[in-house]
Amino acid sequence: MSNTTCASPQESLANSSFDGSIAFVLGTRPEIVKLAPVASQFPDTARVAYTGQHYDAALSDIFFAECGLRLPDARLEVGGRSRGAQIGCATDALDRLFARQRPAAVVVQGDTNATLAGALAANAHGIPLVHVEAGLRSHDRAMPEEHNRVMVDHLADLLCAATPGNVANLLAENIDAARIVQTGNTVVEAVHRHLPAPERRTKLLADLGVESGRFVLTTVHRPENTDDAAVLGTVLGELARIADAGWPVLFPMHPRCRAAATRAGHGGLLARLLVTDPIGYGDFLALAAEAALIVSDSGGVQEEVTVLGRPLVVVRNSTERPESLAHFAALVDPGPEIGRTARALLADVPAIRRQLAGRPSPFGTSQAGALIAAATRALLTDRT
């Protein structure tokens, strides 16, 4: 398929229809993980429109089955395009789909291009829009996701905010309080649901050749860390020095990072790390639970460590999840501070684990999916 043209949505399941459905529009792995607990509350009416923003099967298809989310009823296949083309093509395809088959509501999550496309298409047809994980703000205008989430929040009819801080952000932008409900974050129940039992975790560690509490887990995928060869080299260099100091660094590698590292000639740095292909959600949680430390630029990982009780070094210029920074995470620029912070947290792993074990997650309990579903039903009742 050409990267310069937009394809019509392809309905991938026989006899599926979006008429009167609760339509879940998503395009990335984190959206699959976080919307599955909500979609499960609508067993008869949930339908899925998948934009394919994560078009690598290792980052998408396996997660539908693993997270218990139905396979897509419509595939839009916009992956591999620029941000503008992804949003434009997905919006156009969803607009035509919703014109033929009108959902009762559209549910989007987070701040991706798929989120904004779903919101624009719903708004164009006057379909009630539910935004899960509303109110996150980094106040960093260089972050494309910041623009996505702000626009979606102002379009949404129901804003499901995870934390009091998220609610405060929305109220500060003069969004009507009647449209906002604090629900917690569905990531909490996702972690509890998918964290493997100790026996499986032990086998996974043995297969990978690492010991519980004696390795560092890392993920790197954000453009600010991968698109500049020098920055990526600095990040990988810091990780390699951690490994050289006796802490094996396990690196399930995102395709974006692998391609960037190959282009930049960073193979020598990667050779000092334990690089694997992307892994399933349950396996990632298993490794995070057993790691001495996580180093990542992922937003979702910032939430997951608060449920698992593990320390995190966040390699980013800014974060929209300051709640994790209070006890669980440290925000550092992509430079020598990565290594310094990591070494401090690795100095006494048992003490850090004891300190974090008794702290509740700031992102709520395992009730978010049910609360979001109840608020969605109330919204639709009010509209009838």
Q: What count of structural domains?
A: 2
Calculate Rg over CA atoms: 20 Å
**DSSP strand (E) fraction?**
5-15%
Q: What is the oligomer described by this structure?
A: single chain
**Low-pLDDT segments:** none
Count of alpha and pi helical runs: 17
Binned, the helix content reads: 40-55%
First-to-last CA distance: 41 Å
Q: CATH H-level name of the largest domain... which superfamily?
A: Glycogen Phosphorylase B
Q: Give the overall pLDDT as a whole number.
A: 93
What's the CATH C level of the largest domain? Alpha Beta
Report the order of strands and helices.
EHEHEHEHEHEHEHHEHHEHHEHEHEEHHH
Major sheet details: 7 strands, parallel
How is the secondary structure organized here?
Blueprint: E1 22-26, H1 29-39, E2 46-50, H2 61-67, E3 74-75, H3 83-100, E4 105-109, H4 113-124, E5 129-134, H5 144-155, E6 158-161, H6 164-172, E7 180-182, H7 187-194, H8 198-208, E8 216-219, H9 223-226, H10 229-244, E9 249-252, H11 255-264, H12 267-270, E10 274-276, H13 281-290, E11 293-296, H14 299-308, E12 312-315, E13 329-332, H15 337-346, H16 349-357, H17 368-383
Parallel strand pairs: 1-2, 1-4, 2-3, 4-5, 5-6, 6-7, 8-9, 8-11, 9-10, 11-12, 12-13
